[in-house]
Hints:
GO molecular function: oxidoreductase activity
InterPro entries: ARM-like, ARM-type_fold, PBS_lyase_HEAT, Ubiquitin-like_dom, Ubiquitin-like_domsf
Largest sheet: 4 strands, mixed
Strand content: 5-15%
Shape: elongated
CATH superfamily of the domain at 72-169: Leucine-rich Repeat Variant
Domain Ubiquitin-like: 3-63
Radius of gyration: 29 Å
CATH topology of the domain at 72-169: Leucine-rich Repeat Variant
Number of strands: 4
Protein name: Ubiquitin-like domain-containing protein
Distance between the termini: 89 Å
Amino acid sequence: MACRVEVVTLAGNMIELNLEPQSTVADLRQAISLAGPGVPAECQRILRNSALEPLPDAEPIEERQYRLVVSLDAVCKDLETGDPEQRKKGVETLSRLGSKGGLPAISAVASRLQDVNHGVARAAIHALISLAEQGSREDVIAAIRKRMPECPPGIRQALIEVIGSVAQWGDTGLVDVLFQGLQDDEPFVWMAAWEVLAELAESGDNRPAVVQTVIARLAHDDGSVRAAAADALTWVAEAGDRQAIMEMAQCGDPEAIEAVSERLKDDCPMVREKAARAMARLSEDDDDRCIAALAACLGDESREVVKAAFEAIAERADRGEKHAMAVATEYFERERGISSSAGGRSPP
C-alpha cells in the first residue's frame, strides 16, 4: 500500500506525494523532480524536520513529513569539472530548475558562456533563453550585459539574438546590451544588434521611444557610443523610418537632424564621419540646412569626414537637388584646381 508523504519547502509550499512502501530518499527525490513544478534531483537536499544535515539517498522513508532545500552546490561542482559532458549536464539541470534557482542559477549558467567547449557554451545560451521565458528576463539581460564583452564573437552574436527573442522594450539593461552590440568590432555582431533594435522599433508603440533612445545616445560621454548612435540613426532612415523621426519631433522631442548636426562638430573624428553619413539619410529632400551642414564638413581636418560629407552631398546631387549639385560642383572644381597646382591631390 502506498504511503503518503508531505514535503515542505523553505518558502512554506507543500508537495504531497504517494510513495511505494520501503521507498528511500532517492525515490523521494525522484518523485519531487517529477511533481510540478519540479525541482531536479541534483538540486535537492532532503532533511528531517528536526535535523540540519541532508539525508543520504539510501535512507528509508519512515516519516510523514520532510523538508526540501534547493541547493546549487552539486550542480556548481559539475560546472567546474574537466568533463564537458558533465558541465553540459549541469547547465541543463539549472535550465530545468528555472526561476527557483534565482540569480545564483543565472550567474552559474552565464559563467559557461565562455566555456572552451562549444557544446557547453551553446547549452548555456539555450538555458538563458529558458530562464528568461520562465520569468527571469531582466536578470538574464543583466547577466548577458556583464558577460558578453568577454565572450568570443560567435557567442556575442548568439547572445544578441537571445535578447531579441526574449526581451521587451522597457526591460532594464536592454538598451545597454544593444549598444554594446552596436559598438562591436565584428560586423555580424553589430548587424545582429541593429536587427534587434529595428524589430523592437517595428511596433507603432515602441518606435518613437526607440528612436528617442538612440538620439539620446548621441550625447554620450564615450565617442564610440556616439558613433554607434549616429550609425543606428542612419540605419533607421534607410529602413524607411524617417517618418517616425519626424513624428517624434512634432511631439516635442529632440529632433534627430538637430541632434546629428551637433555631432558634426564632435571632438571624435569617427563620430563626425558617422554623423555626416546620417545627415544625408535623415533630412528631407531639398533641405538646405542639411547641405549647408555637410558643406561645412568639407573643410574638416579628417579625410574620412570629408569623404563621408562629399559622398553624402554627391548622393543628393545625383537625385537632382540643386543646392547639393552646386556645392558638389564647387568643391570638385576647387579640389581639381588644388590638384593641378600641387600635383597630386584629388577629391575624395
